[in-house]
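Hi R.,

As promised on Friday, here is the backbone we talked about, encoded as structure tokens. Could you run it through your design pipeline when you get a chance and send me back a sequence?
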């Protein structure tokens, strides 16, 4: 009997396609006037892809497995140097066998195989991966993979067994009974081998189970790494072929080194020479590195030269900074084989859509498949594997043959720092490489890396370029109390003034004070704007674009009041900085937004620091206190660049921090990673744990009421069965653009003035039985933004609008 890999998809005639397109266009017409040119282009590209798609028909299981094996073999032709012969053989055999379990009668009947000739009703189905894992013996695998040990066999069958995350509740006797009833005959027929047997005892050889009743003994890291390699690459090749692609990697830059050549050409064209950091990283491309260098020394270019055309992940702390690096690589260095991976990258692909391009949705899917030679991303997108959840092995497996760049490690909280340290150790052990490039590298991090297996001059090389930096860009002064409004206004008469507050509330209050003074007419008004995270997404983008444009305009003068979001996410350069005191790492990031490019040598204070009260809930109190106490040694005079590293090193001195909560939190997180059992976390739990997702998505009530018909039309489109996934995602992004995230401090209660219900379409003619929910809540909090002036306070904490939920 011919067996198939999945259900048949209906092949559409040209007339049927045209009919669907007409229906798509008719519903899209309802929102046409609010779509941008790039969004319209993205929808057109999606429709063109739909028109030109040729249905393959139902794929046989044999063909599906052959395509995955070919995908793996083609991959190893390019990246085989990173793997042993045994590793390659085990992965290929896993690709060959992982879906064999689909030949069982229950599955074939479910997908509509007409050859099954069975009217039998089935009460249950055991997942095909579990059946595949009992379809091979140790001797059979040994005949295919030379030097295969019992340990290799256990790793192999575990990878096959868990290649999907399924309910794992069947024991060997139950699997044996199911196989004898529904599977064995078809398996013999598939292999044309009457002697083929079921090895149900393989279930007892699995490294671990994915259920609450089994006792999983924690396996050693080196065993998990071997398992993750097979499981991760199996998933990678399976996902690639199932998504309709032939190659697991979009392209390889290993031999041509196009990006490196383009950087060389750019430097030559602009009469630029490589500096010491760039030369150092060029000469150490085969080493793991930790490189410390001041802002403006070209760390990005140095890191890209170090990558040397190998597959690479460039990680940053923030989406905005990721977007900037992505643009820089793509446009400044004219390198096309780069992608962007974070929660907002789909919208970014929509915004840069050009007619004839691959659809934004497909570009995003390729990005999620980790298939580009260079990916610019947020750390949480690729370090999920530290939790050893099913479905995260693909990240560890991919990083084995990649280089990872960690930019500005000091910007992360203690839990993420612990995840990075633990993850880098696994990457290094598996054969991957890493480079940490940063303006500051606290000694405590070096100590923790050593404690958990990453030892200087053994596992990585450390180089500090800040000690020779004698540049003076800043002159600090210090005061206690609130930021001096009069000084800010005076400075803004002929300078670009940046103000950074520790909270949104204090930023809004300061904005109100200065705005009221200007509004009174007592002083000459200058430009004033406010930027923080409680603006809806589309308004925040406008503000971010404006602050960068303002920063680059030599003739501009005025005030931008902001929060921590500008510390490392935006490439801006102001003349003067007024800031509330923070921890030293945060403070030094803030300094990098003032006189960033050393445009002048200060002869008086250009950074004014205000030590405020009641900030224990914002920063670690020990680190904050040490930062304040030591700050006095660096104020009242010019600050030489190398002294910044000295300052942070004194604050983060390991010996002084061992008994603090900061040190203990990182150490505790690292110990937790060491103790985590495989499959202890689900992938969804990892997302929540890693991103510390304690927030709710809201739309301000006045924004909702202004756009109520548009939102309703969008929701109708999202729920229309004719709308393709990529077009649906574009429309969903239009609603998402009107939202922002609010933190949740009580897991059982939404923030004040937030509706408990989520927004839904008011329409009755919904094609889906269940509406697609976007999990967006309405809020009655006051929201203020003037698009024309690019001014407003954003979402207020206490003030409510005079409206009710409808």
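Update: got your reply. Pasting your designed sequence below so it's all in one thread:
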């Amino acid at each position: 009997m011919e067996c198939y890999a999945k259900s048949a998809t209906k092949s559409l005639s040209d007339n049927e396609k045209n009919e669907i397109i007409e229906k798509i266009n008719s519903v899209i017409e309802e929102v046409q006037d609010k779509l941008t040119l790039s969004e319209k282009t993205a929808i057109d590209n999606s429709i063109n892809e739909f028109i030109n798609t040729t249905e393959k028909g139902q794929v046989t299981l044999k063909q599906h497995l052959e395509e995955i094996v070919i995908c793996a073999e083609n991959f190893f032709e390019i990246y085989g140097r990173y793997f042993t012969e045994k590793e390659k053989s085990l992965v290929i055999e896993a690709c060959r066998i992982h879906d064999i379990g689909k030949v069982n009668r229950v599955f074939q009947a479910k997908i509509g195989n007409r050859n099954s000739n069975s009217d039998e009703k089935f009460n249950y189905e055991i997942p095909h991966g579990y059946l595949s894992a009992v379809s091979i013996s140790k001797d059979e695998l040994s005949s295919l993979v030379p030097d295969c040990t019992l340990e290799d066999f256990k790793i192999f069958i575990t990878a096959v067994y868990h290649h999907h995350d399924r309910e794992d509740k069947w024991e060997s006797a139950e699997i044996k009974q199911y196989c004898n009833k529904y599977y064995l005959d078809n398996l013999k027929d598939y292999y044309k081998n009457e002697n083929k047997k079921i090895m149900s005892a393989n279930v007892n050889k699995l490294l671990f189970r994915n259920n609450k009743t089994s006792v999983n003994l924690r396996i050693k890291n080196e065993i998990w790494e071997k398992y993750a390699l097979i499981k991760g690459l199996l998933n990678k090749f399976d996902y690639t072929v199932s998504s309709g692609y032939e190659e697991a990697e979009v392209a390889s830059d290993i031999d041509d080194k196009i990006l490196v050549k383009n950087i060389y050409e750019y430097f030559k064209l602009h009469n630029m020479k490589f500096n010491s950091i760039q030369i150092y990283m060029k000469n150490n491309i085969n080493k793991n590195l930790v490189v410390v260098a001041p802002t403006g020394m070209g760390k990005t270019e140095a890191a890209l030269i170090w990558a040397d055309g190998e597959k690479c992940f460039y990680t940053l702390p923030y989406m905005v900074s990721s977007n900037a690096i992505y643009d820089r690589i793509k446009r400044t260095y004219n390198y096309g084989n780069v992608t962007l991976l974070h929660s907002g990258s789909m919208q970014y692909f929509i915004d840069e859509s050009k007619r004839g391009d691959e659809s934004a949705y497909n570009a995003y899917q390729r990005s999620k498949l980790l298939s580009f030679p260079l990916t610019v991303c947020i750390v949480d997108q690729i370090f999920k594997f530290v939790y050893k959840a099913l479905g995260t092995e693909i990240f560890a497996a991919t990083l084995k043959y990649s280089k990872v760049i960690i930019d500005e490690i000091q910007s992360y909280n203690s839990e993420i720092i612990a995840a990075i340290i633990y993850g880098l150790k696994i990457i290094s052990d598996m054969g991957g490489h890493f480079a940490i490039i940063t303006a500051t590298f606290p000694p405590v991090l070096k100590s923790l890396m050593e404690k958990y297996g990453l030892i200087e001059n053994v596992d990585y090389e450390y180089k500090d370029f800040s000690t020779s930096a004698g540049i003076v860009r800043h002159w600090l002064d210090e005061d206690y109390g609130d930021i001096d409004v009069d000084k800010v206004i005076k400075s803004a008469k002929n300078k670009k003034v940046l103000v950074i507050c520790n909270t949104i509330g204090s930023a809004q209050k300061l904005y109100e004070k200065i705005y009221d003074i200007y509004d009174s007419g007592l002083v000459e008004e200058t430009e004033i704007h406010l930027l923080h995270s409680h603006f809806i997404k589309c308004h925040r983008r406008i503000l971010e674009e404006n602050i960068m444009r303002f920063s680059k305009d030599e003739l501009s003068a005025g005030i931008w009041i902001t929060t921590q979001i500008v510390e490392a996410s935006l490439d801006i350069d102001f003349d003067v900085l007024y800031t509330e005191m923070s921890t030293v790492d945060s403070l030094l990031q803030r300094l990098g937004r003032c006189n960033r490019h050393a445009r002048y040598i200060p002869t008086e204070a250009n950074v004014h620091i205000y030590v405020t009260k009641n900030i224990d809930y914002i920063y670690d109190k020990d680190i904050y206190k040490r930062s304040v106490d030591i700050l006095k040694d660096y104020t009242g005079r010019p600050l030489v660049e190398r002294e910044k590293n000295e300052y942070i090193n004194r604050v983060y001195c390991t010996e002084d921090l061992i008994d603090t909560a900061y040190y203990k939190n990182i150490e505790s997180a690292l110990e937790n990673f060491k103790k985590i059992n495989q499959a202890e976390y689900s992938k969804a739990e990892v997302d929540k744990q890693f991103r510390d997702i304690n927030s709710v998505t809201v739309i301000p009530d006045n924004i909702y009421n202004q756009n109520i018909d548009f939102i309703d039309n969008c929701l109708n489109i999202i729920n229309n069965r004719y709308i393709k996934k990529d077009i649906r995602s574009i429309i969903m992004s239009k609603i998402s653009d009107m939202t922002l995230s609010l933190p949740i401090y009580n897991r059982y209660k939404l923030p004040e003035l937030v509706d408990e219900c989520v927004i839904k379409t008011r329409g009755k003619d919904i094609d889906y039985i269940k509406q697609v929910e976007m999990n967006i809540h309405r809020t009655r909090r006051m929201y203020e933004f003037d698009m024309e002036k690019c001014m407003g306070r954003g979402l207020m904490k206490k003030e409510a609008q005079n409206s009710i939920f409808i």
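One thing I noticed while checking it: The radius of gyration is 29 Å.

Thanks again,
M.
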